[in-house]
Amino acid sequence: SHVYGPVQGINPELHEPGFCTFYEECGINPDVTGSLITPTIPCLNYSTARLLDKIHYLKLKSVCPMLDQGEGKTFACCSLGQLISLEKSLSLSKAVLIRCPSCAENFAHLHCVTTCSSNQSLVVNVTRTIKVNTTGLEKDAVTAYQAYISTTFADAAFRSCRNVRVPVTGGFAIATMCGLYAATLCTPQRWYDFQGDSSNGLAPLDIDFRLIPPGAPVPSGIVPYNGKVPGCNETSSTGNEPCSCQDCKEMCPFIPPPTSPPQPFKIGHIDGLLAVCLSIFCSLLLFFVCFLLLRTSDHYFKSRNKVKDKNGNDLSQELMEPKDVTCTDRNSLATQEFLGSLFQKWGTLMATHPLKTLLASAVVVVVFAVGLMYIELTTDPVELWSAPDSRARQEKDFHDEYFEPFFRTNQLILTAPGYPGHFYDSLLFGMYNFSGIITKDLILQLLELQTRIQAIEFWSDDLNRTVTLKDICFAPLNPKNPSLSDCAVNSLPQYFQNSVENLNAKVNMTKLGVTKEVDWRDHFIYCINSPLSFKDMTDLGLSCMSEYGGPVFPFLAVGGYENEDYTMAEALILTFSLNNYPRDSVKFKLVEKWEQMFLDIVAEYQKNPATNFTFAYMAERSLEDEINRTTAEDIPIFMISYAVIFVYIAVALGEYSSFKRILVDSKILVGLGGILVVGCSVLASMGFYAWIGISSSLVILQVVPFLVLAVGADNIFIFVLEYQRDKRRPGETREEHIGRVLGRVAPSMLLCSLSESICFFLGALSSMPAVKSFALYAALAVVMDFLLQMTAFVAVLSLDAQRQDRNRCDLALCVTVSTPRPSKPSQGFLLPFMKRYYAPVLLKPVTRIIVVVVFLFMFCASIFLMFHVTVGLDQELALPTDSYMLEYFKYLNMYFEVGVPTYFITTRGFNFSTTEGMDAVCSSVGCDPFSLTQKIQYPFLFADILRSFLAIPASSWVDDFIDWLNPGSRCCRLYTSGLDIGEFCPASERIRYLTVMRKSCPFPRRYDSENVSPNFMLGSDLDCLLLPSTASRFMAYHTPLKNSQEYTEALRAARQLAANITRSMREVNGTASDFEVFPYTVTYLFYEQYLTIVPEGLFNIAVCLVPTFVVCCILLGMDVRSGLLNLLTIVMITVDTVGVMTLWGIDYNAVSLINLVTAVGISVEFVSHLTRSFALSTCPTHVERAKEATANMGSAVFAGVAMTNLPGIVVLAFAKAQLIQIFFFRLNLVITLLGLVHGLVFLPVLLSFFGENSLTHTHTHTHTHTRAFVVHLFLF
Asked: Where does the SSD domain start and stop, copy by copy (predicted)?
């Protein structure tokens, strides 16, 4: 039995210099249980300090060097046994603090003073003793005492330790040494209170540390200790180097702020870009005004010199002589005559043999389309948007080769809006406010849901057994043969090891004389401050580690809090991590099956009316599933769109002379034939590329038919309307009539189709797989569409003409109508309207000027807006409006307080085994202040200066390795008994079988890497994945990233940081020239494109514009002016499209780029037909030629392009997919409307001012006479 004796008051006679208060060990403290060290207590002994002999002195010098006064001169109040016990006790703290030698020394300093100082009695006052029997003698053993310390000493020691980090977690070491208060609320007093609390498992007795400010009164005889304290930026008393920047802010080098971002471009107080655009507009306007003045004056002087006959004819106009015909005129006419003659013969041949033509066309299409048997539809976003040779893709492949692919995430974010919160007055932590979501009943409900999900199982035919979560889960601590409890599941119940019993545990606890009940809330508060603790500081004695053995950091378990106030979190987070397998692996099917069952369970749980949670959820497969679902659901929308277009074509192509002949004059079969031609061209294109192994995508299935339909319908309208308007000549057969009409319009069709196909083929130079494959499919489809129009559609029109000539009804071929066909060709409604009203009004002098001014203003305004278009594509837009993933992304942005993890990966070619190599990587004491881990740390430390988007600094295995090697940390170990005595002991072995490895574990800067490093790398239960000789990685976390712009900037900043690290590490001797450090996380694959999409988009569009100019020039006989005006109009359409994108909130991204490339192709249809019609017109003046082109060709373009596209586009507004609504409805509507107004409003006016001169300057009475005259000139 033990007799307790409190010590009352302070006796000044017992507190004198050179005297001890206690000496020697008096056994085990009976009041301490479950301690991590042996709780040895000293004997009460008021006596003088002892002069130390050599052995005793050397041990003191080793453990407490700050007390060393020299051999033969050093006195102390501790025995050799006490020194050994003190050394063992301090080794636990050194394991955490040794990274900063001055901190470790300052921590030990006070305990050395209270245990061994020769002036111990001046600092220590015993407050409680017990009677013990040792060797038959009864002694007083000290179980509690007061230690008086100057606040100057305490504050300085605390400052030297407050920023020391634990590399494996990135957290502060002091968080594990301040008990209830962790790092955030830790103060010097609380720090020492924890050290003196025997209930923490580390202190052998109770110590009441009294921190005394300078000058404050103290009891008589007491002198508060105020020894020298080296700062963390100073060398220790033993000569160890100062701490590193990561552990000591005072050691951080000066980080100059980055050059401030350039100020907004301004001219005076006006936006500089706006001023430039206004200047361009004013300059163009001034040029136009000058041009008008010159033109007006020229016309004035010419009109004064005109001589007219009595009939009003101009006699001063000279007839064109053969010598006056320019080379351009000759080339143009030669080209048109050659192409017209060629297509006329071809058309006559096809129309003469329509059935043979259709059969041959069908055979060709079938041969190509058979390749569809081998088509591969790419749905993997990585394959769609990241090129195999792109940097991000290569980095992903490198990461996956040397490390495992990123695990698959399946997650729920749960809230309980309206659920009442409560205050909790904790015995240990004081008053805490708990939000409504942090209540026991909701945590139990979450645990119930978690357990249900963990119990998912299903039968696998591939494995011929039942599959459970353990077969596919990510199990970091037991990857080879995991059990269900080894699976990484992060959630709040993991703080209680997923145990209902632990959650319900309660116990009465006494602190400072107050007894209260402690429960799950006390444990939770403790764990969110010390997630790495294996035992909390309450009498519950529960661990904070998860059931699978790893820590659960609070930012992964709860969300929606401020300033780390986790108890006020608004959301609970439940995350299941699964292994990521290749898509062709059997286990990939199992993972997808498990994830589908996970989604089913969660969806069912969400519909349960008894559920108290409002939550959002996702599986790794969810994004791809939702995109595929909406694509399938929107197929009917596309079908309706195509049906509307078909109905329009069938109705609009008809020439309706009377109600009785309406079924004869309709063109339903012709319209159907045109649609089939488009469909067959798309099938042939897809089949061909399937033959050669180029995969397709959903974008191709949605966009290419739409594009080819727009192009094909235009050609169909031009051909059919021209045929209907042209009267068959006397003696001319139907087939010859069709051939002659084709000879007239086919060169224009060739011009557009050739421009578009070359445009798309050049667009395949894009590095983005989706853009490249789209361009290839579209190019070949346009080519096939033109070829089938020149063959199959000519045959269809020939057969339909036969039917119409025989007065047979459309569709009902057996039914004939007696009403004869009118002898005069039908011009329909649009051509007369254009000729009589639209063209004359448009080309009035005032109207022309207004049009030029308005369109120049639109162009300059769009240039300004183009520089403000948002670049990126938020992943929410890829989802349908009713997708559950939209709610998940909303919750993710609202409640997640940390972003995606990112790795800084080192490639092979760096020698980690040298001192210089290690210094260039580590962040411990003595390391290069600009090492790899230090540079990753600086953006975190100086977040207000360096915008790096890093939230948590990199954890470093190198620093763990150094700590493992340090003999003072008790982590370098050998077997001391058993068969393996003397051999390396892995970290998983229990402590009692280990001893400190001294000789084989010198200071880490001089270790034998060949012997020690393999032990470290292979000494855990994990397979060795990180081999420094090949590749290594260092993990950090991004800040929460809300949109694609932040994701892109985070990637840019991470790459800049990695490039800086690469440059410095290449300077280390022995580093390979191709060594590299690069950042990697899964999101980089999708956002890398936005780093270069602007210049790449400009390149692609520029490349597409070139053939529109070149082909136009060549097919118009080297007519450069017409080619330039054609190009200018297409450029204006494209620029104006981007300007409207800015106004309508359409972001610029790869999908937009595809549509802009498409816009160039559709613009060719709006522009090139009209340009060619104007160039070949023989009217005497520019205005009359523009009127003729607008009326004749403009009407066909309006009916064939605009009115074909618009009905189909409007239908797309009802699609569920936001991607379709924004990038197909909005953007295609913009493209079509802008193309329409530029082609039918601006271009005629532009040509009337700046178009090429007519081939004749003489006024002729008829088109036929003019044409004959020109042919005569050419033949001459």
From this structure: 634-799
